[in-house]
């Protein structure tokens, strides 16, 4: 068995800033090391260890840095985001399933061995990390403060088909300006400051996107997709941007996220998930980092990927823009 070297905090995932803090662990706490994962940071790579601790009925799993731990087990290295099978899933209709800190080894439907980690909303989008133990799926999902959690949910509560939950129906959330976006949808908890060109949400005619006052500073993809390009300067009307390609229900389209304060680095074609952090929300544009009040201008469109699709047009130049929100 492994032990904690000195007082530390266990997290719901392998990063201090991006995942929710789970709880404090005291020096000498006995734990079981399950696997390890390398997480790249601006200061270099960090190795995080997935551990388990606690007694029957209230066991827990979480992550600590490897140098916080005296490790005795021979553990393997995992790379959840590169494993085949990882991908977007959605909670089924009319349920709000409980998620747990570990997978019950006896029951496939009721978890009596591990503590609860909270619950999910019906139709909420999560990322399946290609680990399923006794029908308990390891997932990653966003919380209301923008940080993420990893936890286990009964796999029967998830679906891999977006059409089965009607999340792609146009106008189901963003129909009234300043309305709070429902929690189960992307950017849930944020507000719509200005919508796509219509009579209900748009202040200025020809607005080619959604201006969202997000509930936190993290910008994440609407859907699973692949990285296309970014613009790291604050020049132009859209400032810093990142563009992704998506295929949903056999429809290929692009999303561009604008006015960002910072943009994460990706390689061409790199896969991204709804929980992937693309960068930080900001107000960049026209050569300044604070040209606008902080918000996300989100453009959705078909045709050709663009680093900086301009935010307005006249009626004759209107782009074909999808309304998948």
From TrEMBL:
Ranges of residues in domain M23ase beta-sheet core: 206-304
The record's section on Gene3D superfamilies has: Glucose Permease (Domain IIA)
Name assigned to this protein: M23ase beta-sheet core domain-containing protein
What domain of life is recorded for the organism? Bacteria
InterPro entries given for it? Answer: Cell_wall_metabolism_enzyme (IPR050570), Dup_hybrid_motif (IPR011055), M23ase_b-sheet_dom (IPR016047)
Q: Which GO terms describe its molecular function?
A: metalloendopeptidase activity
Q: Which Pfam families does its entry note?
A: Peptidase_M23
């Amino acid at each position: 068995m492994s032990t904690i070297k000195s007082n530390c905090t266990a997290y719901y995932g392998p990063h201090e800033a991006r995942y929710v803090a789970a709880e404090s662990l005291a020096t000498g706490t006995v734990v079981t090391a399950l696997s390890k994962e390398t997480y790249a940071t601006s200061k270099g790579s960090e190795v995080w260890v997935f551990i388990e601790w606690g007694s029957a009925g209230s066991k827990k799993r979480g992550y600590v840095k490897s140098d916080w731990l005296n490790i005795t087990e021979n553990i393997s290295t995992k790379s959840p985001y590169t494993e085949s099978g990882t991908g977007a899933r959605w909670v089924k209709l009319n349920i709000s399933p409980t998620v747990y800190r570990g997978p019950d080894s006896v029951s496939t439907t009721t978890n009596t061995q591990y503590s609860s980690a909270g619950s999910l909303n019906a139709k909420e989008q999560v990322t399946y990390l290609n680990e399923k133990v006794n029908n308990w799926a390891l997932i990653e999902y966003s919380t209301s403060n923008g940080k993420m959690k990893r936890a286990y949910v009964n796999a029967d509560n998830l679906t891999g088909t977006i059409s089965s939950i009607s999340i792609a129906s146009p106008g189901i959330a963003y129909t009234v300006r300043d309305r709070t976006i429902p929690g189960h949808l992307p950017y849930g908890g944020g507000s719509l400051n200005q919508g796509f060109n219509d009579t209900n949400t748009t202040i200025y005619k020809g607005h080619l996107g959604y201006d969202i006052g997000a509930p936190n500073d993290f910008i994440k993809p609407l859907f699973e997709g692949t990285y296309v390009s970014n613009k790291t300067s604050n020049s132009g009307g859209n400032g810093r941007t990142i563009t992704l390609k998506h295929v949903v229900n056999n429809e290929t389209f692009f999303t561009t996220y604008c006015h960002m304060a910072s943009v994460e680095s990706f390689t061409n074609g790199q896969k991204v998930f709804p929980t992937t952090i693309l960068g930080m929300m900001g107000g960049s544009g026209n050569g300044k980092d604070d040209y606008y009040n902080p918000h996300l201008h989100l453009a959705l469109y078909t045709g050709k990927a663009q680093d900086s699709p301009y935010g307005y047009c006249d009626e004759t130049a209107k782009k074909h823009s999808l309304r998948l929100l």
